[in-house]
Amino acid sequence: MKKIILSLAIATLLLSCKEETNEKVKDATKAVTADVKKSLDSVEEKAKKAIDSSKIKEKAKSLIIKGAEKVEEGAKKVKEEAAKK
Predict the structure, then answer these.
(1) How far is Cα 74 from Cα 12, in angstroms, rounded to an integer?
(2) What is the pLDDT of residue 18?
(3) What single-letter DSSP state applies at residue 1?
(4) 34 pLDDT above the threshold of 80
(5) CA 60 to CA 64: how far, in whole Å?
(6) Distance CA 42, CA 77 (A)
(7) What's the rounded Cα separation, in Å, for the pair 70 and 57?
(8) Does residue 73 sit in helix, strand or coil?
(9) b vs e for 18-44, b when ≥16 Cβ sit within 10 Å of the residue's Cβ?
(10) What is d(CA 39, CA 33) in angstroms, rounded to the nearest whole number?
(11) How does DSSP classify residue 85?
């Protein structure tokens, strides 16, 4: 009889601990999920900034090239006018 009562007591303790452990696991899972989502959001923002900056660099390059072409055209006109005089 003592063994049966002792076995039931141990089984009850194990089951109660199991419920607490499950709750802790659920809480930990939620915390990890939240951290992963935050890190993904920050990575996404950084990627967008990098993409935007590369687009700006491409636009700047094209503007610099166009500006250089205009300067060259102006220089050619000045040379031609100087040669005529």
Answers:
(1) 93
(2) 59
(3) -
(4) yes
(5) 6
(6) 52
(7) 20
(8) helix
(9) eeeeeeeeeeeeeeeeeeeeeeeeeee
(10) 10
(11) -
